Amino acid sequence: MAIASTGVYEEKVGGETRRLVLRNGEIERFELQYDFGVFQLFDQLFGRGDAPKVSHVRDIVALALVGGGMTDREADALISSLPPSENMALRQTAQRVLGVTFIPAALTAGDKKKAAGSPVKKSSAKSDTAPQSVSEISAV
Q1: Model's pTM, two decimal places?
Q2: What are the residue ranges spanned by the domains of the chain?
Q3: pLDDT value at position 17?
Q4: Of 62, 95, 105, 109, whose CA is between 20 and 30 Å from 115?
């Protein structure tokens, strides 16, 4: 998974790396088709509410493919060709696509943390909570 220099999210879908992006047009198409919005789908994908329907997950990924440059027919054909065993992977893709759509800094923030690393404190002083030796325990 990557963000290209143009800001397009890329991930493997159907065995190939594909561009995915949700613009307002794709979001509005989703919301016109269903009786709820992408924010509700976002909540469902992240465990706040009922689990999302497979059709919603597949449709949002197909729309992201369209936003990334595929035609409607190509995106629909690709998503339709994927077996049910791909639904969990598509759900994770949908999570990332919506996450990048609404919180684009999330991916770059993770990279910055990895580059910075975690500070490690080294202590040369011995701990005063060291376990007692056997002779100290038996003397008690």
Answers
A1: 0.73
A2: 2-118
A3: 96
A4: 95
